[in-house]
Amino acid sequence: MTIVPERLKTLRKERQLTQEQLGELINVTKVSISGYENGNRTPDTDTLRRLADVFGVSTDYLLGRSKEKNGSFFYDNELTHKEAQLLREHLAFIRFQANKKESETD
After folding, report:
1. What is the three-class DSSP state of 97?
2. Residue 66, Cα to own-chain centre: how many angstroms?
3. Domain count, the chain
4. pLDDT averages per 10-residue partition of the chain, 106 residues
5. Which residue from 36, 52, 85, 104 has the least number of CB within 10 angstroms?
6. Domain limits for position 57
7. Cα separation of 56 and 23, whole Å?
8. pTM, whole model, 2 decimals?
9. CATH classification of the domain holding 52
10. Does the keyword Iron apply (predicted)?
């Protein structure tokens, strides 16, 4: 499994996230995000799934198996691009908060 570094970096910059912010959203370090973006590290399956969820893209897109970004977010057909992007960002924040609460109760 090889993530396409350019795609990850482009998606992160499109969302105006720092490596540290993205790492917090998916529960990895800034160093890990940097490694994924420069091709020195490969995310495990769970991390790849979380990246896809945060960006609203398919894992196939992140892996370079598809040229289509979307396909995993069912509201895209009904929303404008900007609305879909805002919804993805809110969803990523909600997931981040839920994961944070789970880790605090463990």
Report:
1. helix
2. 16
3. 1
4. 84 94 95 96 93 90 82 54 80 86 76
5. 104
6. 5-105
7. 16
8. 0.65
9. 1.10.260.40
10. no
